[in-house]
Write a sequence for this structure.
């Protein structure tokens, strides 16, 4: 049956969008996921992988477009793996993401009741990203710069990226391609470059898995001096790190000045992250805390914003670089009653919860809370937990675990921090 199924194209109509951005088509009791399709599209698809209850397919022909379909702006869309929803009207993108969060809480978290979930849309929907990470792909002539494709076996050289650069942005990608093509490659080297905006200029972070040659190092140092748009360059491998130029970028967040650099995490959408911080601080103020514990605090933004409200805050982050920036930001903003620790959250949470902080703020990576951290929370039971997440499934999983020990989800709001993609940011408030 499987061989016959794979050989036979399937006609159908897309019902809705699943988490990850693929359209859902149903055929003979099978759920079929079809990337780059829109609700009510009438399509002809070819099934590429099949399991007992679901299958993956590729679009062969769009027979009739659904009402939410629009023409993507980017010429790489559908081949590049960076955007999944650029073919949808923006209201349809928001509706899909709101449903991603609702479905995760109900199906993954297994919550019997959830509060109404709203999603905050973005005004800036292209050119919004603060930073982007490109793959450096070895070729016969140095490296090429681009993304791994929607098909992971394909590399997509990039001449433009509409969610990172405005149409009138400087020719930075051309400069980067030119420099990368001159770099020496090494067998088995895995290389990337991250670009961080600072107005019309950029800070570059080149990562190589193999030791950096002196020729490559000299070329990148000269490039930083040659190109006016290259504000600073960090070059590192597994052992060494080299810095050329100025690698710090200044951010204004709610009237305070922060610095970041490409070696520490910073939220990608300036406008939307400011809205999230504003809403978070307002929700925290309602419980009138005197003390707070900020886990995965990054470069200290939320810790310092809470300290400005008169809250005594301890921030924890595993990255030494991020903590150094957090301390620099605290000093620059004359933040009192805030301290930072460069530790794994799961290693120190039990000790820090002995102080019974009034508020616990958690902003973990996509994998969610470490199992040991979650187990500790289920025994220590802080009264108020605020959870910021970029992955609805792991957020729902963790909330479901906390619900088993008496926490309820009081408030949940989604933010479109990543327009044109299937990603969504969520702010959840739990209380026991």
């Amino acid at each position: 049956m499987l061989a016959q199924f794979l050989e036979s194209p399937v006609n159908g109509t897309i019902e809705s969008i699943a988490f990850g951005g693929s359209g859902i088509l149903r055929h003979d009791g099978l759920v079929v996921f079809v990337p780059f399709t829109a609700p009510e599209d009438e399509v002809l698809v070819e099934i590429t992988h099949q399991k007992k209850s679901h299958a993956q397919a590729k679009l062969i022909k769009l027979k009739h477009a659904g009402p939410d379909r629009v023409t993507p702006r980017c010429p790489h869309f559908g081949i590049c793996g960076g955007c999944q929803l650029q073919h949808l009207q923006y209201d349809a993108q928001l509706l899909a993401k709101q449903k991603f969060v609702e479905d995760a809480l109900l199906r993954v978290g297994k919550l019997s009741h959830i509060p109404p979930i709203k999603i905050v849309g973005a005004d800036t929907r292209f050119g919004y990203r603060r930073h982007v990470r490109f793959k450096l792909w070895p070729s016969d002539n140095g490296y090429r710069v681009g993304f791994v494709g929607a098909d992971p076996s394909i590399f997509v050289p990039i001449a433009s990226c509409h969610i990172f650069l405005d149409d009138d942005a400087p020719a930075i990608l051309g400069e980067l391609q030119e420099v990368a093509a001159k770099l020496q490659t090494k067998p088995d080297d895995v290389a990337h470059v991250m670009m961080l905006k600072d107005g019309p200029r950029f800070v570059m972070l080149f990562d190589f898995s193999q030791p950096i040659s002196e020729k490559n190092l000299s070329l990148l140092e000269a490039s930083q001096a040659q190109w006016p748009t290259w504000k600073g360059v960090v070059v590192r491998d597994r052992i060494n790190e080299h810095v050329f130029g100025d690698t710090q970028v200044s951010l204004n967040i709610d009237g305070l000045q922060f610095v970041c650099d490409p070696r520490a995490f910073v939220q990608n959408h300036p406008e939307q992250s400011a809205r999230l911080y504003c809403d978070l601080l307002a929700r925290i103020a309602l419980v009138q805390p005197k003390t707070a514990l900020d886990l995965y605090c990054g470069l200290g933004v939320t810790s310092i914003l809470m300290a400005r409200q008169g809250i005594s805050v301890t921030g924890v982050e595993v990255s030494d670089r991020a903590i150094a920036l957090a301390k620099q930001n605290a000093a620059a903003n004359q933040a009192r009653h805030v301290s930072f620790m460069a530790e794994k959250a799961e290693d120190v949470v039990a000790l820090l919860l002995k102080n019974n902080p009034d508020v616990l703020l958690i902003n973990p990576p996509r994998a969610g809370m470490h199992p040991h951290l979650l187990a500790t929370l289920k025994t220590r039971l802080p009264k108020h937990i605020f959870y910021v997440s970029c992955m609805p499934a792991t957020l729902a999983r963790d909330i479901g675990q906390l619900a088993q020990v008496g926490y309820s989800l009081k408030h949940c709001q989604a933010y479109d921090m990543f327009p044109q993609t299937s990603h969504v940011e969520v702010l959840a408030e739990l209380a026991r």
Observations:
- DSSP finds ten helices and 23 strands in the chain.
